[in-house]
Write a structure and sequence with these properties.
Mean pLDDT: 78
Strand content: 15-25%
Low-confidence stretches: 5-10, 22-42
Largest sheet: 6 strands, mixed
Number of strands: 10
CATH topology of the largest domain: Immunoglobulin-like
CATH class of the largest domain: Mainly Beta
CATH architecture of the largest domain: Sandwich
Distance between the termini: 5 Å
Helix content: 25-40%
Number of domains: 2
Number of helices: 3
Order of helices and strands: HEEEEEEHEEEEH
Structural class: alpha/beta
Radius of gyration: 29 Å
């Protein structure tokens, strides 16, 4: 008499597939925000007619411009609006010198000395009332990158600066490569666990050896 074969349990493959799904969720739900923490620079690109661009920037309580990267095309008529979101004063000064980056340790006095020699393309003071807007019109400069800063004491050294790119693309953010890395890890996890699930399912489906009594 042959013993009755035990019912095949499907829990193994199901759990394995579930692990694969969980792994993907972890990769994109946990690791990706970590990448976003050092994520891509926010970029305001040109809008309007080919010869005109409208740009909007905000100043914040966290000593930052938002966005801190702007793109234009040389010769465009630029209409800039800077909105004060903080409750203390900020300034917005745009350097006229192409491909020049202020040393990170520059003090307010260093910035003042620079702009005394190189008249800024934009020179705005926002005041300390949240919601106030300041306006500037200028012609987009020649091809290159131009740094803009807040020259008030300790604001620049706290990270309050950004770049205007004229006729050139901003450098690729490392966040893009991080995202690709996480996608690759997720795909690898799914492939490995999927293969394991396939092996387990084949093993469960194999009939048990015949036994005679």
């Amino acid at each position: 008499m042959k013993p009755r074969a035990k019912p095949v349990s499907e829990s193994g493959p199901i759990l394995t597939y579930g692990s694969a799904i969980l792994a993907v969720l972890l990769v994109f739900g946990v690791l990706s925000p970590a990448a976003a923490a050092g994520g891509p620079t926010s970029v305001a690109t040109s809008s309007g007619t080919p010869g005109t661009v409208f740009l909007n920037v905000s100043t914040t309580n966290s000593f930052a411009f938002a966005p801190d990267t702007l793109t234009v095309q040389p010769g465009q008529s630029v209409h800039l609006v800077v909105t004060q979101l903080a409750d203390f004063n900020h300034t917005f000064l745009l350097s006229p010198v192409a491909n020049f980056t202020f040393p990170a340790t520059d003090s307010s006095a260093d910035l003042d000395a620079f702009f005394a020699l190189h008249a800024p393309l934009v020179n705005l003071s926002l005041g300390s009332t949240a919601g106030v807007r300041a306006y500037a019109n200028f012609t987009a400069p020649a091809i290159g990158s131009y740094e803009f800063v807040c020259q008030l004491p300790d604001h620049f050294t706290s990270g309050m600066h950004g770049e205007l790119y004229s006729g050139v693309a901003p450098p690729t953010s490392s966040a893009a490569s991080q995202t690709l890395l996480y996608v690759g890890v997720a795909v690898a996890i799914v492939v490995v666990l999927g293969a394991a699930a396939f092996v387990l399912s084949r093993r469960h489906r194999s009939p048990p050896p015949s036994l005679t009594t």
